[in-house]
UniProtKB/TrEMBL annotation, chain A:
Family: Belongs to the bacterial solute-binding protein 5 family.
Compartments, record wording: Cell envelope
UniProt xrefs under InterPro entries: Peptide/Ni-bd, SBP_5, SBP_5_CS, SBP_5_dom
Phylogenetic classification of the source organism: Bacteria, Pseudomonadati, Pseudomonadota, Gammaproteobacteria, Oceanospirillales
Signal peptide positions on this chain: 1-25
Pfam annotation, one family: SBP_bac_5
Domain of life: Bacteria
Keyword annotations from UniProtKB, A to Z: Signal, Transport
Domain (Solute-binding protein family): residue spans on this chain: 69-450
Protein name per Swiss-Prot or TrEMBL: Peptide ABC transporter substrate-binding protein
UniProtKB/TrEMBL annotation, chain B:
Keywords: Cell membrane, Membrane, Transmembrane, Transmembrane helix, Transport
Keyword Transport: yes
Family: Belongs to the binding-protein-dependent transport system permease family. OppBC subfamily.
Membrane topology per record: Multi-pass membrane protein
Entry keyword annotation includes Nucleus: no
InterPro entries documented for this protein: BPD_transp_1_N (IPR045621), MetI-like (IPR000515), MetI-like_sf (IPR035906)
Pfam families attached to this UniProt entry: BPD_transp_1 (PF00528), BPD_transp_1_N (PF19300)
ABC transmembrane type-1 domain segment(s): 94-297
Name of the protein this chain belongs to: Oligopeptide ABC transporter permease OppB
Length: 528, 308
């Protein structure tokens, strides 16, 4: 099977698009950039590659189609109360775990309690905090059964009560933190329920083998309610941390899909494997944090504006990053549902005019040849971040700004900037769920991920109002208004929007680019 | 000999203790913790994590707990790879690294030793220059350059061998990583063997052997090679330990599930238990290898005796 595919890909590579003979591939080989932390969804470390594997083996109340849109999953119907605080889900008849046991509302309640149990020490438990008492349960202040999730009708109905109306709650349910956990298996095996011999899952595939740092293999789950509609016999996820090596393996026909190829190879791939090279907008923002804490030069809005004015974002995206990013003028990226992209004022158009204005602002702020502006720029070690940092330092040079660049490995970088010890710092945010609030909360006063310590009561107020607004159009207006407040304050320097970068064997169907970069394998088929 | 071996093993205990203690505290002194990352965690979640891994205990208590578990052969759970214990990770990865590394060392000896001997015997000839230039190139070009080139040429362009993957250790998957891993070793060993061979050939007892009228072949085989092997042997101790504990570069490029990358990933993720596990394992291996080298020494050189 492999040999046939290898020769096919070789043929594609050489003749760029010409098809060879028939191919009988029922197993999909995907190169993912890292190792899964655990099949226990409470223990996952947050890598994008982890969601790829987990969404193939588990299914939440809702699932996604190839375009990333929501559709019924383990729940076939749901109702939302008028106040937006109670959701009632009707569980799918005949939904089963891979050992044939039925999937019930109990498994959801159990799974969520397990995730929020302080003893589980789950890193991403906070994603379920919209559920009533979730935060208190997670802090150990309330018992597990105080959680606002109830199994009714002998497990056929799940009633979820929220803390407050959460318009993105359904989006959240596709995240792995909201997957069910097989209560019967955990009761039988304890912590060992995730071992390959014991594990049961409710998705289109079930795990069968795991060679740490090499490969995870899953095969079609015959108990899956839609099994007859799943084309693949199985999927192998190969840990391919060296992404250039992954490209070689793709070209050799050993892999059908590579997630997140290196941006530096984009031009080459586009020229040489045009049919296989995918690049499309993603829900992610690459930005520089400007430290607004007192005592920092960047606490002065004029300095923040000046720094923003002279950044040539098109140069960054098209020349420095060779088209593998999109230039950004806001925090919330395009593709965010129920949101129109906003735009920072004055940061495009005639460069000379922008430069002149920026110089003026720097002067007004009290800096000049006698009192040069020295700023410390921190970034986490990577070639990409380094290139961008150097380019920006050069762009800020005409303002008389001296940039001192400091790089550190990611752990140290984030620890330092969380403590506020910087003027300018590189940061990025990939959406947890498709909603503008997930980005805008980064600038809320006192929030941990608000590295720059930006604080504007008007901004916070608008976000609070949005959180309590059930009318989705009105909520959208409030969120957009909030972002504009921050953009008018030049609260950060938006630089680039992330894009999804995937190499996909052209003979695959059912694989669509989407802003969340979620690609459930259950839709994938080989066309030849 | 047995007494000597036992004595050496006993001496290793304090050494290991120092290694473990130093690594334990150095790791904790390093800035950044296992749960620091892009996303700052809510305080209650951080508290849960710290409690789950006993990181909220005072450091000396954490140390004692670790030593206690270690004495029972328990390296603890990995902070990052939750479905495996550190012991399981090492047990799964080491045989793979051992296989690749062992083959690479074997290949390096099979090619490096003869090349070095030939170069020494044909000193300053075209053969010598050729061997030494190639060896110098082998040392100079790092394996993170060689490995992708091998994968590209033999995996992609010629399609003779897999460009990566382990595939349960199938022979075709072994070829490229073993070659990539051995090239530098071949070069080192050839150069070392040449130098030591030249030195031996100039010594008095070789002159004596020749004066006795032994044939050149007898001189070389019976009198020159054995002593010339000594420096190579002492090099091999740490080299073998280094190679069979895996190479992070080779493992990443070829997607091999060895333990090499745990050293780097453990450190980068501040996966304390994983780092400690690999350090203890590597330390023990070095001690064993050095002991082995000393024992081989005595077999090679009759002047070296390890009697009591």
């Amino acid at each position: 099977m492999h040999c046939k595919r290898r020769s096919l890909i070789a043929a594609i590579t050489l003749s760029s698009g010409l098809m060879a003979g028939p191919l009988y591939a029922e197993t999909l080989d995907i190169g993912v950039m890292g190792e899964l932390a655990s099949f226990d969804t409470s223990q996952v470390s947050g890598g994008v590659w982890e969601s790829q594997i987990l969404m193939d083996v588990y299914e939440g109340l809702l699932k996604q189609n190839p375009e990333g849109e929501l559709m019924p999953g383990m729940a076939t119907k749901w109702e939302v109360s008028e106040d937006g605080e109670t959701y009632t889900f009707r569980l799918r008849e005949g939904a089963k775990w891979s050992d044939g046991e039925p999937v019930t509302a109990e498994d959801f309640v159990f799974g969520w309690q397990h995730l929020l149990d302080p003893a589980s020490a789950s890193k991403y438990a906070y994603l379920l905090y919209p559920i009533k008492n979730a935060e208190a349960v997670n802090a150990g202040d309330k018992p597990l059964d105080a959680l606002g999730a109830e199994s009714l009708d002998g497990g056929k109905t799940l009633k979820v009560t929220l803390e407050s109306p959460t318009p993105f709650f359904l989006q959240l349910l596709t995240h792995y933190t909201a997957y069910p956990v097989p209560k019967h298996a955990v009761e039988k095996y304890g912590d060992d329920w995730v071992k390959m011999d014991n594990i049961v899952t409710n998705g289109a595939f079930k795990p069968v083998e795991w060679i740490s740092q090499s490969r995870i293999s899953v095969e079609k789950n015959p108990e899956y309610y839609d099994a007859s509609d799943v084309s693949l016999d199985g999927v192998n996820y190969f840990t391919t941390e060296d992404r250039n090596a992954a490209i070689s393996r793709f070209r050799a026909g050993e892999l059908d899909i590579i997630r997140d190829y290196p941006s530096s190879r984009y031009q080459w791939l586009k020229d040489n494997l045009p049919d296989a090279t995918h690049l499309s907008p993603m829900l992610g923002s690459y930005y520089y944090v400007l430290n607004a804490r007192e005592g920092r030069p960047t606490a002065d809005a004029r300095i923040r504006e000046a720094l923003n004015l002279v950044v040539r974002r098109k140069v960054l995206s098209e020349q420095i990053m060779a088209g593998s990013f999109k230039d950004a003028y806001s925090l919330v990226p395009p593709g965010t549902s129920r949101y129109e992209v906003q735009r920072m004022d004055g940061v495009d158009g005639d460069y000379q005019a922008r430069l002149a204005k920026a110089k003026q602002l720097i002067k007004e702020a009290g800096y000049g040849p006698d009192n040069p502006l020295n700023l410390q720029l921190r970034y986490n070690t990577s070639d990409e971040h380094k290139k961008i940092a150097i380019a920006l330092a050069a762009m800020w040079k005409p303002l008389g700004v001296n940039i001192q660049m400091i790089n550190a490995e990611a752990t140290v970088h984030y620890q330092t900037i969380q403590q506020g010890d910087f003027d300018i710092a590189r940061a990025g945010w990939i959406a947890d769920y498709n909603d503008a609030e997930n980005f805008l909360t980064l600038l809320r006063s006192g929030v941990g991920n608000n590295y720059g310590g930006y604080s504007n009561p008007e901004y916070d107020k608008l976000l609070d109002q949005a959180a309590n607004t059930l009318d989705l159009d009105k909520r959208q207006q409030l969120l957009q208004q909030a972002e504009n407040v921050a953009l008018d304050d030049y609260a950060l320097a938006p630089l680039l929007y992330y894009v999804t970068r995937n190499l996909v064997n052209p003979s695959i169907a059912g694989w669509q680019d989407n802003a969340e970069d979620d690609h459930p394998s259950r839709w994938v088929t080989f066309t030849e | 000999m047995l007494t000597y071996t036992l004595k050496r093993l006993l001496q290793a205990v304090p050494t290991m203790l120092v290694v473990i203690t130093l690594s334990f505290f150095l790791m904790r002194v390093a800035p950044g913790g296992p749960f620091d990352g892009e996303r700052q965690l809510p305080p209650e979640i951080e508290a849960n994590l710290k409690a789950a891994y006993h990181l909220d205990d005072p450091l000396p208590m954490q140390y004692l707990r670790y030593m206690g578990n270690l004495l029972q052969g328990d390296f603890g759970p990995s902070f990052k790879y939750k479905d495996f214990s550190v012991t399981e990770l090492i047990a799964q990865g080491f045989p793979v690294s051992l296989e690749i590394g062992g083959l690479a060392i074997l290949l390096a000896l099979l090619l490096g030793l003869p090349l070095g001997i030939i170069a020494a015997l044909r000193r300053n000839s075209a053969v010598d220059y050729a061997v030494m230039s190639v060896a110098l190139a082998g040392i100079a070009v790092p394996n993170f350059v060689i490995a992708p080139i091998l994968a590209l040429v033999f995996g992609v362009l010629l399609a003779w061998l897999p460009a990566g993957g382990w595939n349960g250790g199938a022979l075709p998957n072994l070829v490229l990583p073993v070659i990539a891993l051995s090239i530098q070793q071949i070069a080192y060993i050839a150069r070392m063997m040449r130098a030591s061979m030249i030195e031996v050939l100039g010594s008095h007892y070789i002159r004596t052997a020749r004066a006795k009228g032994l044939s050149e072949r007898q001189v070389i085989w019976r009198h020159a090679i054995r002593p010339a092997l000594l420096p190579v042997t002492s090099y091999l101790g740490p080299a073998v330990a280094g190679i069979i504990t895996g190479s992070v570069v080779i493992e990443q490029i070829f997607g091999i599930p060895g333990i090499g990358r745990y050293f780097v990933q453990g450190a980068l993720n501040r996966d304390y238990t994983l780092v400690m596990g690999t350090v203890v394992f590597y330390g023990a291996l070095i001690v064993l290898m050095n002991l082995l080298v000393d024992l081989i020494y005595s077999a090679l050189d009759p002047q070296i005796r390890y009697d009591d």
